[in-house]
Amino acid sequence: MRLARRGFWIVAIVLFGALVGCGDSASETPKQVPGVELTEITIAGFEQVIAEQKGKVVYVDVWFLGCPPCVENFPHVVELHRKHAADGLVVMSVDINDKELKKKEKVVNFLMKHEAQFPNYILTDDKRKVIEWQKKNGAEFTPGVILFDRTGERIPVPEDAPNDEIEAVLTKLLATK
Known about the structure:
Layout: H1 2-20, E1 39-41, H2 43-51, E2 57-63, H3 68-84, E3 89-95, H4 104-113, E4 120-123, H5 127-136, E5 144-148, E6 154-155, H6 163-175
Parallel strand pairs: 1-4, 2-3, 3-4
Antiparallel strand pairs: 2-5, 5-6
């Protein structure tokens, strides 16, 4: 009898999951969100984009879709944009996994799902160059954060800095005019 009940609940859970659409949320097609794009770019092009932001504080989220901690942290990145954009914060995300160029639609769907209405890029350089760039910018591990102050100077961020600590640094940078 216990086995029959267990079987019933397993079937019920599976059917419920099918009805509510359980599955890989990155591959589901979310609603279209204006201003959410994914731009292919080289490292040199990305560095130029950052250089053009002088006068603003820049927060770069270094991530990729195949990184569970990156995916888990992404809503916080979106929240930073919503909370501080009016104060002069420019949030950018940069996907560092060139293999995800072949899965670009999944990446875009993820960005749409999270309403990432800020510049989103995917690097097209080979892995070796990307790793060198990450080391140069103190973002060797993902998720990584690269911060620039209003003068364009990179502000070091410890690899394991919690989000609230990074936000405290951002608040100080944004207060400096």
